[in-house]
Amino acid sequence: MYNRIKVDPITVEVLSNAFMSIAEEMGGILVRTAYSTNIKERKDCSCAIFNAKGETIAQAEHIPVHLGSMLGIVKEITKKYDISEIRPGDMFVANDPYNGGGTHLPDITLAAPIFHDGEIVAYVANIAHHSDVGGRVPGSMSGDSTSIFQEGLRIPPTYIMREGKLIGDIMDIIKLNCRTAFERTGDIMAQVAANTIGAERTVDIINKYGRDVVLSGMEELLDYGERKMRAGIRAIPNGLYEFEDYMDDDGIDIGRHVPIHLKLTVRDDSVYLDFTGTAPQVKGAVNVVENALKATVFYSMKAIVDPHLPPNGGFYRAIEVYAPAGTLVNPKVPGACGARTDACQRVADVVFGAMAQIVPRQVMAGCNSAVTTVVFSGNDVKNDRFFVYPESLGGGFGARYNKDGLDGVHVHITNSSNLPIECMEAEYPIMVDRYEIRNDSGGAGEFRGGLGYRRDYRILQDTVFGSHGDRQKVAPWGLEGGKDGATGRFVINPDTPAERVLPSAKSSEIQLKEGDIMSAQTPGSGGYGDPFRRRIEAVLDDVINEKVSVENARKLYGVVVDKARRTVDEEATKALREKAGP
Amino acid sequence: MSYKIGVDVGGTFTDVCMFDQDTGEVFVYKLPSTPADPSEAIGKGVRDILDLYDVSPAAVSAMVHGTTVATNATLERKGAKTAIITTKGFRDLIELARQTRASLYDVQVEKPVPIIYRNMRREVDERIMADGSIFRELDTAEVEKLVDELKAENVEAYAVCLLHSYINPVHEKKIKEIILAKDPGAYVSISSEVLPEIREYERMTTTALNSYIGPKVGIYARLFKQRVKDMGMELTPYINQSNGGLMSIETTFDNPIRTALSGPAAGVSGANYIAKLIGIKNLITFDMGGTSTDVSLIENNTPRLTTAKAIAEFPVKVPMTDVTAVGAGGGSIAWIDNGGMMKVGPESAGAVPGPVSYMRGGTLPTVTDANVVLHRLNPEVILGGRMKIDEEGARKAIEEKLAKPLGMSVLDAARGIVTVVNSNMARAIRVVSVERGYDPREFVLMAFGGAGALHAVNVAKDMGVHKVLIPSNPGILCAVGLLVSDIRSDYVKTSISNFVSENIDRMNANFKELTDKGDAWLNEEKIPADRKVIIRHADMRYYGQNFELSVNIPYETITEDNLEEIAKLFHQAHKREYGYCNEGALVQIVNYRATAIGRVQTIELVEHQREGEDPSAAVKGKRDVYFEEVKGFTPTEIYDRDLLKAGNVVTGPAIIEEMSSTIVVPPGHTAVVDNYLNLMISYED
User: What is the value of ipTM here, to two decimals?
Assistant: First the structure.
């Protein structure tokens, strides 16, 4: 307990700095101490501090979708356990989307209560994406699983530490269920270390400023986040805006698009998002549990309304989200959700699409909006060990009202970095033949959409391949007259007689032979504005740099370029552009 | 008679500093920089200072300088016309980078435009594997054709970076040979020479930048050398590097990238020298200027180095002094955001329009204005009486922009500004200390820069730091740093192996390869044997990790006997950095590093005679100053720093003013003047 007192805005700012320092320090420890490449090099993890009610006070910003697991964890712990039995030095582990506050099984959350004078005053937690948590496929997140029970070990909130002592039995269960048990120990110990430091530092702050000041300050910070979000929403006209976009498929019913529908209402200083009209939950692994949906909506609203909102949960209070139970965006057990990020990305595009009708300068055009993911696994013959190598691939980031999109990046709810090719080749029996920008994959526009890329893997010994992704059928949309970007694809042995295009982005257990090439070609993104209004020099630049072909420069932009001479035929261009008319 | 000259070239001014070796006296001369050819101002400045003090050029025995040519060429994108040659399929490495975006939520986020456009990035059909074996041979005819094409396009510089060249450089070397044969005037760097280290993107940006700035820095370095010679000086001029060491003109020519972030390095070297002189081993430097603040950590008189820095958002993996910059300083503007929170910075009023109280047109309240209202800064005149201060203006601006909207008094708002900026500073200090496993309480905070001494004591207290050192002549720290540095060159080699006795021979061979290179370089630089030092480091990790820690190897060779000992050093480093270690686990070496050091020079500063403790002769006035410690204004003695003598003890509350800065000594603190006229401020709990 504490007394809520008025804390002046200056002390609140000082505390805000202190909490961010703690979350960032936790993030630093986790990234640096983890064993697996996924956490270390790709930073696929997040850390946060919560108040006793489970509201986020500060989150180190690594991966927005992790917000989802952060939303649920404390609530799930307090639902399951009597607070009075939790003791200092205890720590919990959880990953289940339906019972553990998680969003998919590979994201394992570790949470710890923070005690002060014998009472829980706050929590710290961190999430890390583990490269395997068991289940039917290596990597545990195949796009074509049809039940959560195929996706790996389900962990409800469970003690992993009691009074500072690790519970070996729980660790043993986790390790026994994971293909790369060795890594799990190291990664989980890194998560423990991050929480331990985070809790210690928070207690230091409480001792320094006083319990009432710090805990009241946490509330002030939340109020502040809420005020800022409401101020931003108030600047947006009231109204009801609708948008719909589709996923390619669910990985099972190939060829059947999956609609995501949104009615968004802006009312004074709050927003209401109603996903009624979205497809029923699907067989495939792209179901988005409620926490993941909320995390995606919160990310989107923050990006659109005010990217400078403090990284705490106060602003959530201005946003209400509704999705009928049993739908893609609020599934019931045993809906599979391993590849939920692909659907989350589409949810973000849908929110941006709705908001584009109100605040077109605060959004970008449709993005690559999948988390194109490849997973290679097998027994490494040379080193005689089983390996799982997952990699998520970036693509186009949509054009804005005033500038081109970005090429080859992760968008929306994810931002993990790639694994250096040299490190990958030193570790796995796979080689990369090319890693290059896909020409002509950006949607044409006055501002061009960002381009996707192509990464060709050469298989050096027989290997199993699995994948998920999307936007291989439904293209990223343009805005205000901008054209759609290119869709992506997976191709085995491209440009050979044996070429085989995978029917869906979501696949598993594809046997690749030594010498095969697996070519991942990621989607681009939409353009913004009429391409015939694009500056002629910008089109020329794109042709010289081979981001736009001579043919497309003429056809899509009305610019006639002599590539060898690096010049524009101005008369022909004028004629083409005039013919098209304004 | 012997003199040493250090020249620090800044964006606006060039500072020339001359030390008289016999008396320890320091002479300083300032003149406007000449950005078109910075060596022009250097030449003029040196001639002027020699004339002014009637010193013959022949009496000058050392000449060292820090240059920003490389930094500016990169930031302003004014490097040479450069082409990249890489492995087929990989020309976009430099553009795809690590596929992340700099901001998660910002719809307007941008990616840095590559310094070398796509059409100037060319490929050759070759391939080396991770184990160094050749998968596809280099086709020399293809390379020859490519170089002909690039030459026809008037390329001035080539950067060659092939996959896995760190383990097998044979193809890169061949390409270099072909380029030099076909285009002898061109500047060429190959990644296996610039940075033979695993991780292709970072190696490529580092190599590309080296070539991009190479011609410019090379020409400049030779101009500089010529000017020194023309003035009649018989000496080897040196250039400062980002790692805090010096290098000759010839080394600079091949490795211009090593100067890329050398600016802050000299200041850190200077600070370290001063600290060493008075027996302080562990310090955190705190250089707070008008728009930004630089912080760095020195442990055991060794500045921390890093290879994780970027310039213009491009990673540069050569070792650099680890300086963290924060976008807040004395000129930072305080404002209220739309959620009603007070923020300070990152907007700065700069020199123009400047703080409100400077009366140069500024209307927005800054940190400086808050200090004026609190009377920590002289509310009437500064700069020794040359500049008037408008206290009323500062007060009004704070009232209108902050106090009224927040519903608080002007005084509380002013206190708030100082508190918020101090907490920003404390966060920066946490980044360099706590987040890297150091306890700041074991360090002395050394403050300099225009606003450093104003805030240092409060920031220190926030962090539990008990001692704050204010150096005697902060304006010359950089020049001091230049003149006390050693020449230094870092070598690296990637070769991943388990740290076990079966690999001892291989590990020693790797180290020997590097130390031989270092030794050969020191010989080229004509360093006598008694002034040579070679230090070995290894980047180590636990098996399965993909992130290394650099560990100092205190042995010339690894043997069965010291293997354990070295592994233990790694476990300790891991424990310090990350809070745990895993003594049973298998350890690997990833990178071998050697640093070759040649001690070329040093200086002796004047030591002053100790006088009495009584500082009253230095009192120049009295005013009411606000102190957080007593939550109010207190009559406070104002001292003139130039009149303080070695041995004087100033008891807080006190304000000590000098030409370019103001030192705050709060109640409960004492400031002691040491024999070099530094001030040590401390408090007892």
Answer: 0.92
